[in-house]
Each structure stands twice: as structure tokens, then as C-alpha cells.
From TrEMBL:
PANTHER family with a match to the protein in the record: COBW DOMAIN-CONTAINING PROTEIN, COBW-RELATED
Protein name: GTP-binding protein
Catalytic activity: GTP + H2O = GDP + phosphate + H(+)
Gene3D superfamilies reported in the protein's UniProt record: CobW-like, C-terminal domain, P-loop containing nucleotide triphosphate hydrolases
Domain CobW C-terminal: 241-336
Species of provenance: Neoroseomonas soli
Length: 348
């Protein structure tokens, strides 16, 4: 019997956003036992008080029953090593990848979605981005990576809200919602947040649990509210980033969707920050999840069943940069109608 895949959570956020504090708090939670933490750069993180023993040059054991490895160089190699340990019987129930504050999360997500060895052992569980309530607006104005971190997130956690004025926090929240209406906005004071709020964010769990679809379909509520851009300085990094959701009443032809997503990634990948869809595919009785970042799409995942009370309409959400919504809608319609035409001729 094949083992259940190990869920991977990517924890990102700008320097000083509070990742260390949050991680230290998270790792003390009993439900985090059996977590392996991969840290891009040891220098940035102070997990010293959690360290128990050094297993080898790159690995330490944390007293919370977690394993911590520094990724010097290659994430794929570290994940392969962990997979070998898991096979050998070490309990690794989940992995948290902590990125350096300056990192663009896209290459990490692309690795998790495309490396065959990684895909055989792991499933991307979601991206958690921390944003400092005090420095956040300045960071978004000056650092394009911070904008991408926020736009690609499945969960955004506002930290240090106790140090910011209510006005500052609200202005930042409004800006984050315009950048990413898909991710729920959570608040953490002193790094305290229940692990359950951050985990299971990717919307698919190989254990057959029904995903938390509602969270990332929240984009629908913003359908048609173009509130981005009208009061923004055009020099701002988030100019040109927008998110929207499409809903389809009838089942979709897989050929059409797959070909179109492939074309989109190939021709406009730089502009596609994030795509997530829960789809009703013609001829399939179970929902299919698609998930993409820039030029890379995760292999489609079939869920065990439709969520209770779901209307079974396909929903797909986009976070785009410098790519008009109309281009996406028209391209999708063209590919779907071509696939329908082909199917009609094929059956005639």
C-alpha cells in the first residue's frame, strides 16, 4: 500500500515579520509533533532554545518531537533525504519550509509542484505569508518580493497588530485584500495562532478529508468589485496585480481546460502568480483540483468526494500581474468550445 503523502507548508514573510516567533510557538503545539522544519538559512532563525541534539552537520532534533534541517543550497536534496528517513520509519507527519525573508516563493512552489521525486512523497499543503502590521505597508511599497509573497499566499497572517494603530492595521488589511482576496487574513499577537488555522490550507489532503474549499473560493464574494488601482500610486509594486474567480455551471471538458492551462503557463507564466481551481470535469464524479504557480502546474488531484452541500459548479481563481482578466476569460472560452466541438464531432 502506498504511504500517504507528507503535506508541506511553506512559511514566508519579509525580514522581521515574526516568522521565528510564530515557528517557535507553533512547534510547541502538540499537533505539530512529527514535523520536520526546513530552514533556508540558519543565520536568520533563533531556534536555539528548542534545540536538543545535533544529529549531523545539517540536522538538529527539537524538543517538540520535531526535526530541523538547514537547507544549504538544495531544497530538493533536503526533501529527498527526509523522504528516505520517513521510509526508514522515522515519524515525519508534515514539513514546514521556512524561507528567508527576501525570497520570492515561486521557485520553492515550483519545486514542490514539479520535481518527480518530491511529488512522489509530498503534497503542497499551502503557503502561509506573515506581514508585519507596522512595517508592512512600507515593505510592500519597496520590495517586490514581499508583494509576490502576499499575492501567492493561501493564508496571510498579520503580526505585531498590538504595536500598530487600528488605522494602520486596517489600511494594510485593505491593501492585502486587494492584492489577494483569496487568502483569509488572520491576526497573530506574539506569534500565537492555532496550528489548525494555518494547516490544510492547500485545499487537498491525500487522506481523503474534504478540503476547506470555502476559504479559497472567498474570491467569489469579490467578483466584480474592482477596488484595486483607483487610489494607488501607479509606481507601487502591486500596481497591475489583481485577483478574481470564475464560476462555470456545466461540467468542463478536461482536454479544453488542460490544454488551456498549459498554454497560459507557457506563454504568460510570468504574469500568472497563482491559479487554484476546484473543477467539475465531464465524465468524472469526483472533483478535480488544479493548482499552478507561474510556469508550473501541480499534477491534477482527484478528491475523495464533493464537499457536503456543494453546488458542484467549477470554480477557478486567478492572481494575475499585468494580464487583463479579459485575456484569460476569452482564452478559456475558446479552448473549452474547441474541446466541446471536438467531442461533438467525435460522438456524431
Amino acid at each position: 500500500m502506498s504511504r500517504a503523502k507528507i503535506p508541506v507548508t511553506v512559511l514566508t514573510g519579509f525580514l522581521g515579520a515574526g516568522k521565528t516567533t510564530l515557528l517557535n510557538r507553533l512547534l510547541k503545539a502538540p499537533e505539530m509533533a512529527g514535523t520536520a522544519v526546513l530552514i533556508n538559512e540558519f543565520g536568520e532563525i533563533g531556534l536555539d532554545h528548542l534545540l536538543v541534539e545535533r544529529l549531523d552537520e545539517d540536522t538538529v532534533l527539537l524538543n517538540a518531537g520535531c526535526l530541523c534541517c538547514t537547507v544549504r543550497g538544495d531544497l530538493v536534496r533536503a526533501l529527498r533525504d527526509l523522504a528516505v528517513r520517513a521510509e526508514a520509519g522515522q515519524e515525519i507527519r508534515r514539513v514546514v519550509v521556512e524561507t528567508t525573508g527576501l525570497a520570492d516563493p515561486a521557485p520553492i512552489l515550483q519545486t514542490l509542484m514539479s520535481d518527480p521525486v518530491v511529488l512522489s512523497a509530498y503534497v503542497l499543503d499551502g503557503v502561509v505569508t506573515l506581514v508585519d502590521a507596522v512595517a508592512g505597508r512600507h515593505t510592500l511599497d519597496t520590495q517586490v518580493e514581499a508583494v509576490k509573497q502576499a499575492a501567492m499566499a493561501d493564508r496571510i497572517v498579520l503580526t505585531k497588530t498590538d504595536l500598530a494603530t487600528a488605522e494602520e492595521a486596517e489600511a494594510l488589511a485593505a491593501r492585502l485584500r486587494a492584492l489577494n482576496p483569496v487568502a483569509p487574513l488572520l491576526r497573530a499577537v506574539g506569534g500565537a495562532i492555532p496550528p489548525a488555522a494555518l494547516l490544510g490550507a492547500g485545499g487537498f489532503d491525500t487522506a481523503g478529508r474534504i478540503p476547506e474549499v470555502a476559504a479559497w473560493l472567498a474570491a467569489e464574494a469579490h467578483h466584480g468589485h474592482h477596488h484595486h488601482g483607483h487610489h494607488h500610486d501607479p509606481n507601487r509594486h502591486d500596481a497591475g496585480i489583481h485577483a478574481f474567480g470564475l464560476v462555470f455551471d456545466s461540467p468542463l471538458a478536461w482536454d479544453g481546460i488542460a490544454t488551456w492551462l498549459e498554454m497560459l503557463a507557457l506563454t504568460r507564466g510570468d504574469s500568472v502568480l497563482r491559479v487554484k481551481g476546484l473543477l467539475n470535469i465531464a465524465g468524472e464524479d469526483r472533483p478535480v483540483v488544479v493548482h499552478g504557480v507561474q510556469h508550473v502546474f501541480h499534477p491534477p488531484v482527484r478528491l475523495a468526494a464533493w464537499p457536503e452541500g456543494h453546488d458542484r459548479r467549477s470554480r477557478i481563481t486567478f492572481v494575475l500581474r499585468n494580464l487583463p482578466r479579459a485575456v484569460v476569460e476569452e482564452g478559456m472560452a475558446a479552448f473549452l468550445s474547441a474541446a466541446a466541438e471536438k467531442a461533438r464531432i467525435g460522438t456524431g
